[in-house]
Amino acid sequence: MTLKFGVVGTGAIGKEHIKRITSSLCGGEIVAVTDVNQLAAEQVVEQFGLNAVVYPDDKSLVAAENVDAVLVTSWGPAHEQSVLAAIEAGKYVFCEKPLATTAEGCMKIVEAEMKHGKRLVQVGFMRRYDSGYVQLKEAIDTHTIGEPLMIRCAHRNAKVDANYTTEMAISDTLVHEIDVLHWLVGDDYKSVQVVFPKRTKHALDHLQDPQIIMMETNSGITIHVEVFVNCQYGYDIQCEVIGEEGVANLPEVPSVITRKNATLGASILTDWKQRFMDAYDKELQDFMDSIKTTGEPNGPTSWDGYIVAVTSDACLKAQQTGNKESVTLGEKPAFYKNEKEISKTV
Ligand SMILES: NC(=O)c1ccc[n+]([C@@H]2O[C@H](COP(=O)([O-])OP(=O)(O)OC[C@H]3O[C@@H](n4cnc5c(N)ncnc54)[C@H](O)[C@@H]3O)[C@@H](O)[C@H]2O)c1
Ligand SMILES: O[C@H]1[C@H](O)[C@@H](O)[C@H](O)[C@@H](O)[C@H]1O
Where do the Gfo/Idh/MocA-like oxidoreductase N-terminal domain residues begin and end (predicted)? Predict the structure, then answer.
């Protein structure tokens, strides 16, 4: 069976996902596309030689009979409406982060999905599919380093464009750590705090860069994440878990090591597309495969999207107050308690 996708939003990551579904993954086909910029949607159909209809908006695309699954890759604020429309129509949804830009929006999606009665939604938190993070999780789960006590992370982008704001360090960038870290240690967040170090001269005037976000889990694990989006030198993702019996690090991306001019060298990637290419492939392949085999997606859930939104809201508040802000999630619904471990399925 081929899963027929309708794509909402044919910008940067929309095109990346269309390319992988049509050229490197198995079992998917793009049959519909839409974008507020109709020309962009038409160009994508031509660029990738798709046999797909261009729809005027997400509602008409979702309603198309031959669309089995909706791939939401529009701007964040537009996600909620498209995801809710897809659930309403009983269609599967793969939604890029964020699931919705507010915790209330994510909760509406959670409630709609539970009302529908089976899982339809997967959120694009691709780091859970990255082989490095999967290995790190295995080391933690098998108690290789004992009980985790502290985590230190860095999320560095070489540079960002003028539209990137101080808030986006949380809502666009930190969201990846918020998702992957609670998954890594199997614990939820209790509180967050944000500290603004000395600003880099490479940030535009409106942007506080870098930022340090401190998070604490219910069991007391303390986490420090440095978000530094004008670090200049490359795209660099670091994660170190300090346990009672040892320390585990996210593996470095493999690179040829050179020896030249009295210097030992290795290259560093420059953007997220290359760094997580395999993880993007695996998350979408898993989405298609698990729907085919079990009738439900297997990856990050709407509840995971909700956890990220609540935590991200607390961080945004902490940016303003400078105080420790609490994270209040409420009980995880039983509906979301049977998730399978990705590390055991990919
Ligand atoms: N998982 C990741 O690592 C990752 C990486 C990049 C982007 N993203 C997420 O993917 C989403 C898209 O990011 P991008 O970099 O491709 O942005 P982009 O600006 O390149 O593309 C977004 C596209 O959506 C279209 N659009 C906006 N509102 C729409 C609507 N209501 N209906 C239809 N089309 C609409 C825009 O015209 C644009 O073509 C964002 O939510 C972003 O956070 C995730
Ligand atoms: O939207 C992008 C993307 O999510 C990247 O993975 C992240 O490193 C960037 O900081 C963010 O702006």
Answer: 3-125
